[in-house]
Amino acid sequence: MTTSAGNLRIPISVGDVAKRVFLGKPLITEDISAEKLSNGVALGALSPDAVSSVAYGPEQILIELLPHAGLAAFLLLLPITGVILLILVLVTASYRQVVMAYTRAGGSYVVARDNFGPRVAQVAAAALLIDYVVTVAVQSAAGTVAVVSAIPVLGPYGLEITVGVVLIICYANLRGLREAGLPFAVATYSFIIMVGLTILVGIAREIFGGLPVYDPAQMAGTVPVHQANGLVMGATILVLLRAFANGGSSLTGVEAISNTVDHFRKPQGRNARLVLTAMATILGLLLAGVAYLAHVTHATPYVDEYPSVLSQIARAVFGNGVIGNILYFLVQASSAAILFTGANTSFNGFPALASFVAEDRFLPRQLTKRGHRLVFSNGIITLTALSVVLLIAVRGSVNALIPVFAIGVFTGFSMAGYGMTKHHLTHREPGWRRRLAINLSAAILSTIVVGIFAVAKFTEGAWLVVVIFPLLVFALMRLNREYRAEAAILEMFRTDRPELVKYARHRVFVLVDSVDLAVIEALRYGRGLRADALIAVHFMVDAAHAALLRKRWDHFELETPLRIVDCPDRRISRAAQLLVAKARDEQPNTNVTVLLPRRTFGRLLGRLLHDRTADKIAQAVSLVPDAAATIVPYDVESRIKEAYPDTFEQRIAQEFEKFEMWVSRDEDQKVDAYEHPDRPATVIMLAGLISGQRATVEGRVNEVQDVTDRGRTLRKVLVGDSSGEMTLTFRAGRGGADIQPGQLLRITGKARQSGNHSISMVDPMYHIIEDPAKDEESGESEPSSKT
Prior knowledge:
alpha/beta, 8-stranded mixed beta sheet, 5-stranded parallel beta sheet, 15 strands, 55% helix, elongated
């Protein structure tokens, strides 16, 4: 399976075809865009995680209180909610300073890293990574509860619905779905409007005495309600702390804006602070309103988790009439929409954070790579897998997830507060003492909340986070140590070998097991190395085969001498290692190269019918100092297709190749249009340059290379437009240092034409019109020029 690139035929894997079919055409790097949001859209797009917690926060408090406090739980609900709102005010005040001081993505991780270093920052990283995973599970499960509350017949399929929603969100993000945008804002504002309307109508009906009150004693399937009067009914301190811990889940998502400050328009810090304040205000009002209506209606949670408390409140407020039913279903629809949207928030946050942590070498480097659609595909898939496993483990229960939910969130709050405290002590900007007091208070209070969660909810599932959290931090540290050890070894040349060693002798061994075209190609390559000695070596495992090989070698009169080495234990890798070590030791200052012919076969049958001996030998040889192994590939599969073009398998492959070419159509043209953009009307094409005349052109930088010529360092830059390519040469001190691949340049200079018809300019003036690297970081292009 191939696709054409000029006159070449480049193999395309089955995986690439599958990606094109299921994910769409691959995007090129230029397609990355930092979408800058207005404050109104940002409020709706970045706050669903926080605002949607209104749908389950008050209910979680009642779940803990009702079995112990009875109907008095509805009285205790209000003061506990008041304490949570106080924490919301303090945490919001703390994050208002975070978004002003750190206008990059990353939130508490960046704050902790900048103030305490990357190692301490892994505490914040572990907290946020856990939080993102649990957020997907909680938000999607709560969204399903909103759906089945309105359509109870779907209740038995809640887990399947939840997992399906997570997989759909994963698929959408793999295709390049952006979190920041109007559709997400619509979901948030719809929820705010409908819940706000519910609160206003409910308060009005309560004032005028028309709001129904539920009787938990007459409701089958609710959580157990302690039958006692007054407040003396076993509402111990531990019960209150557990209820508070459950209600603390209402504050999850407050940090979301600090993780996406770079999405805002300039001035980013000020706009992010305004949106953060508005989000916290809306969250506080909705939370207080829903808690109050739960207090007056006695809406009671169910063991099966549906209908939800919010669903019961909406039904009590709007009634069962035609208009009431419409408004009720709108409340449930908007609840499901914002909860599922809140789950999607993590699909932007987790991969981005994992990429930051991986760049600091605390997570695998694969998490830094953008995939087929320019998203961090590995991070998205990892998040999906972990979330689905978690959902299956708790069977999609929101109640089971809450105990492990907020520990990570409040740990992140703590790290942000302590980091900002260190920031104020270091910079001591005007008003720093007041800001320090706010951040330190928020950090200490958040730490206390983490302690409450760990103790009060330990037996209800918090033990899982208490165990996983330090293990995850340890794993991050261990990965970093491995990366640092690898870097230390690979970069030892900086201190131990400041100059490349020039060997006096060079010996090349070609390992052979037959006489065929692959071996001939390796021998041809070996002769091109111009070594002092070129020797073919066969490790004898079968004496009869070795004798036949010798006979065929002599028959074809191959000039390279053949050495047959006995290998009685059949450990060819060890024999190759000993051969190389002996050759190196026989003559000092000798470099040894081992050439390994590799025959490449079909991707499927080839792996079944042939082993990977060359890789094992290469690994063994690489352990020997002053030795190197080179695998020389020979493509057998393509030659089989040419020699036997009409087999059944070939016909299938040809049809599949046609299908692949159909799904990948126009991709090369898109890349070519990027590398060779059309010229503006104000400049001429590169093909129209005349040697010796001064002109202005525009082109994309495709290659940059520093070369040494007669002791001078020159920078060679290859630029192209839709008509061709041109080489720019910059001498030392004459510019070109800021030119990088991917930039779009406007160039003015005198053209020169060499004998091979190539066009060049020496030390031209240039202007950087477009810089993808800067655009990705700041979202705006900042042109620079050199004259």
